[in-house]
Amino acid sequence: MRPTPFNVVLVDDEPRGLSTMEKLLSLHCPDVKIAASCSSADEAIQKIRSIDPELVFLDIAMPVKNGLDLLNELQDFTFEIIFVTAHNQYMIEAFHFSAVDYLLKPVNDLLLINAVKRAQKRILEKTSNKNVETFLHNVQHKDSPQNMRFCISSVKGFQVVALKDIIYCEASGNYCNFHFANQQVICTVKTLQEYEKSLEDAGFFRIHKSWLINLLHVKEYRRGEGGSVILSDGTELEIARRKKDGFLERVKRFYKF
Q: b or e along 90-119 (b: 16 or more beta carbons within 10 Å of the residue's beta carbon)?
């Protein structure tokens, strides 16, 4: 880690939330320096512009202007963000798809430490903060998951893709290959099981130990012991026998027939 600490701005409309975060950071994260603690979005915007911090802890649910309003007003993100929020299911989905760090209140010590380490790594590597832009896009499309964007951790870093463009995901050992409508293939550094957990509520279904498919791209089902599915690019994939009933039920719900 570099010798100088990372400048941090805290944003939370609750004094207790600010004091708690200040204590946790002082106890567990010696490599950060709290440059400002802000109780409103307007105050935070002013401080962020004057201080130019490297990391911002941002509460989403604030009165008058919330955390999303703050980001939309700033527009240019030269800093890393760790969101702090109460549980909100649609927001959690947007977090996962966008690969941004978030902490649920009350903040867990270990999760805080790990989130700060990941943020510091991105700062040192000067990784583009496209994941925040992706998050803001996803919040706007929270009622239509297929219109959301998805951050894929690839061997080169990460890539932002449209969920609707993914045809299927294919297991490849400890890696996973994403197949797209434009015939592009992206090799990722996560397993198929990890992506299954992220995508199962966004119109994806695992038909086999090797394949997770986007139901939007299903063109035909062929009967058999488990059967097989024809996808929009002409690919035919076998459905595991134990997955057949679940697949047919999901397709009926997805297409409402």
A: ebebbbbbbbbbbbebebeeeebeebbeeb
